[in-house]
Amino acid sequence: xxxxxRLAGLHKRxxxxxxxRGVSLxxxxxxxxxxxxxxxxxxxxxxxxxxxxxxxxxxxxxLNGEDITDLPPEKRNVNTVFQNYALFPHMNVADNISxxxxxxxxxxxxxxxxxxxxxxxxxxxxxxxxxxxxxSGGQKQRVAIARAVAASPEVLLLDEPLGALDLKLRREMQxxxxxxxxxxxxxxxxxxHDQEEAINMSDRIAVMxxxxxEQIGTPDEIYYKPRTSYVANFVxxxxxxxxxxxxxxxxxxxxIFGDLCxxxxxxxxxxxxxxxxxxxxFKLPDGxxxxxxxxxxxxxxEPGDEMQVGWKAExxxxxxxxxx
Amino acid sequence: xxxxxxxxxxxxTGRKGRRESRIAFLLxxxxxxxxxxxxxLLYMVYLSFMTRAQVWGFVSTPTLDNYxxxxxxxxxxxxxxxxxxxxxxxxINTLIGYPYGYFMAKLSDRGKKVxxxxxxxxxxxxxxxxxxxxxxxxxxxxVLDSLLMGLGITNAPLxxxxxxxxxxxxxxxxxxxxxxxxxxxxxxKMDWTLIEASRDLGAxxxxxxxxxxxxxxxxxxxxxxxxxxxPSMGLFFIAELLGGNKIxxxxxxxxxxxxxxxxxxxxxxxxxxxxxxxxxxxxxxRRIAPTKQLEGLF
Lengths: 324, 298
Ligand SMILES: Nc1ncnc2c1ncn2[C@@H]1O[C@H](COP(=O)(O)OP(=O)(O)OP(=O)(O)O)[C@@H](O)[C@H]1O
Ligand SMILES: [Mg+2]
What we know:
The structure holds two protein chains of two kinds.
Chain A lengths: L4 E10 L2 E11 L4 E6 L5 H9 L6 E6 L2 E2 L10 E4 L11 H5 L1 H5 L4 H14 L15 H13 L5 E5 L7 H18 L2 E6 L2 H7 L2 E6 L2 E6 L1 H6 L4 H6 L4 E5 L2 E5 L5 E3 L5 E11 L2 E7 L5 E7 L10 E5 L5 E3 L6
Parallel strand pairs in A: 3-8, 3-9, 6-7, 7-8
Antiparallel strand pairs in A: 1-2, 1-4, 4-5, 9-10, 11-12, 12-18, 13-17, 14-15, 14-17, 15-16
Chain B lengths: L1 H47 L2 E2 L5 E2 L5 H6 L2 H33 L3 H12 L6 H12 L4 H8 L13 H25 L4 H8 L4 H28 L3 H8 L6 H9 L5 H25 L10
Antiparallel strand pairs in B: 1-2
Helix pairs in contact in B: 1-12, 3-7, 3-9, 5-10, 7-9, 7-10, 8-9, 10-11, 11-12
The complex binds adenosine-5'-triphosphate and magnesium ion.
């Protein structure tokens, strides 16, 4: 079967640094794929290659089986929601949204109808005449999305579209975007460095590290079966434990502790509260650190205490060690 | 209650004190403007309604003769010629200056610095000297003629100097840097991700330029137009040196009236009309121009 979008061994270098070192990915039609990775790992570079805004040094990009690697951006049926929105400041909201339609010489009546439809889709009814500079961050972001989907692209690339929004608005927009994607049936390639966002929204996540995809899989797979120590640590900040020449990932919520539990004697180093969870940092006899998490504020462990720390054998997932 | 009143009173005197100190700062600026710009202008307007004296200066007999005289064909014509030359100069400046400034803004940082330096060099010498340099190049049997004849392209000196195209050349040469720099500064400020967005949405390079880059750099272009149009109404020495006495601009008439004619009031009247005309043109232009914010001007 031919995939909707296929990246095959993309390489890209800027000066002396190889930013992409062989990126490959197969995306099915209508799929929501998230590129997840730390800052500078090459996420933006990857989608710029898909959009045609940069050309790869090596490798190919296929859309519907057709090689589009060298096509200019205007010849690709792929649109982008830019990291900083890139709305045209000299046009109002409606003109921004209908830009792609005007370029395609769609008749005015049809264009206007489409703009109305899109404005209501992104819940900005009646804002068509507004100046772009008069919009809030969240509104700009919606306009950018409406503009990018106006001409019904096959693939929508979104570069951290919610990055500039506050937490509450972020949550709302996550749901809205997901709803939008279902309604439109467009393939989404979505960038974020927020693992919760990735897990909430994606059909599949591609965890990117240092110019390569370390693991591509469903949120469940990424979360419960991390392939490498980097993925384990980056997604859900699992503990990476090295033992007898092997490396294991143990999620913080699976670490058990107390005077009676099986395991080894460890010292409580630190206690902190974050994201509704209490996190307790232990130091094992061999010097490795382990974090345990619990819901709620109360726990018998205090810094300086010593107690037993362990985990069930099935909660320790063996991973490839890439030093993280 | 009472203490609050006192506090408020104190705050108000504090504010007043600040306002006073600001006026103290602005006073020299106002004074300068009044003494060196406003009063001379007023004096010029006053002068334009006076009668010329027999030898030099004027007598305080109010008259409208100076303005009436401007309507005589010789003088009215000089306005027409000036306007036409200024328009032509501005059009050519725009056609050369816009692409020039645009591509200059797209150079590497090093390239920009070099170009900026090259454009600024001419400003280090007097305009008069530079025009005389061109005369050496263009005069009969001058540098250009020798070159062309030496190469066997022509076999007799060409009469470049003292022609209308020569004057246009001189004007464009003198004013082009202003247009280039005005365009350059606005293209330099362009956010190029907007062009990427435009291409991404399906517009080719040229259409992206027409629909995005150009509209966003129009303010710079308009400033350039004003910066070249206004001075080109008054650059009389170029017309005199490169055009001989064939092309008579308002500036030339004013200069002649001041020197040979010794008619101060008439020169003043000509200046007033020129000024009013330029101001009206700018006002009209600002009204029809598609943007309110002219780069760094007004
Ligand atoms: N045009 C360029 N010239 C030189 N280096 C570049 C260029 N674009 C990107 N880079 C470098 O390539 C690396 C990857 O950049 P990229 O923008 O793809 O990262 P990213 O994963 O999107 O990061 P972020 O989450 O911060 O946006 C970075 O180290 C960056 O400095
Ligand atoms: Mg990025």
